[in-house]
Design goal:
Layout (H helix, E strand, L loop, with lengths): L8 E4 L4 H14 L6 E2 L11 H8 L4 E4 L7 H6 L1 H21 L4 E5 L28 H21 L3 E6 L1 E3 L12 H15 L3 E5 L5 E2 L1 E3 H14 L6 E3 L5 E2 H12 L4 E5 L14 H7 L7 H23 L1
Parallel strand pairs: 1-2, 1-3, 3-4, 4-5, 5-10, 6-9, 7-12
Antiparallel strand pairs: 8-11
Helix pairs in contact: 1-7, 2-4, 4-5, 6-8, 6-10, 8-10
Length: 320
Amino acid sequence: MTFWNDKKILITGGAGFLGSFLIEKLVKDRGVDQKNIKVPRSKDMNLKIWKNCVEATKDVDIVIHLAGRVGGIGYNLKYPAILFFDNAIMGIQLMEAARLENVEKFVAIGTICAYPKFTPVPFKEEDLWNGYPEETNAPYGLAKKMLLVQAQAYRQQYGFNAIYLLPVNLYGPRDNFEPESSHVISALIKKMYDAKLEGKREITVWGTGKVTREFLYVEDAAEGIILATEKYNKPDPVNLGTGFEVSITELIRLIADLVGFDGEIKHDTSKPDGQPRRCLDTNKAWEEFGFKAKTDLREGLKKTIKWYKEVGSKLNDEKN
């Protein structure tokens, strides 16, 4: 608990999905004073601009870099250049600014998309460089992967304490439910919930449904990041996940059951599936800083659907 005493913390993306839970945990579970947490908003402080990175890292002890431009397969296909440039330039500049400001620790949040397309399952951190990422999300994955190269180079040359974490696909309350940029779980929940309300008897989903994915509940991810910040100080990347994979077909059935949608589900097989399988080896996170996910998929989905019914759907209506 003393780790956080009087620490000044910069959390980029702190107003977003994962960031909001991370801040709540720091305040409630670790006793961090809210006034010691700095959360730059993108509309006020664009981190693609160098001087803003310098300003953001002033008088800060710890940087947790969550901010990024991100989306599902469709978004990745539509905006590959933006995803590459924005994510690379933000992270690279922010880490350099943090080094120049003598920040004590930099926590870079990478992505499962950095792994090669045909990584043996379960994904081990040692396999990260054994091939090219899946094509639909390679620009995003590689931009984030460069932060691992930077972190290791800065540790080697400058003795800069930067660590790199690889969370698997996140989900939970407050997720992004915008159709253009949402990920698979939030997209399916919205599609099925809206169809049920509107009395539609069928929905269409992307791909064959045969690929597998692993999902990490957002509050578990926040705890993993906090534990790594407290306890991990090595150059090697670390996976954050559950070690449990589910096919998209099974996921669709589970969400349909929990939402109460009993209509027909059609597969648009002209759309890409993405990476064939995703499932992480999570041993290193347990061994290095005692992290193990606690929320099983069904329970996490129940909480997410409950939030969407009570809050998320109303927010969507207000935007539209």
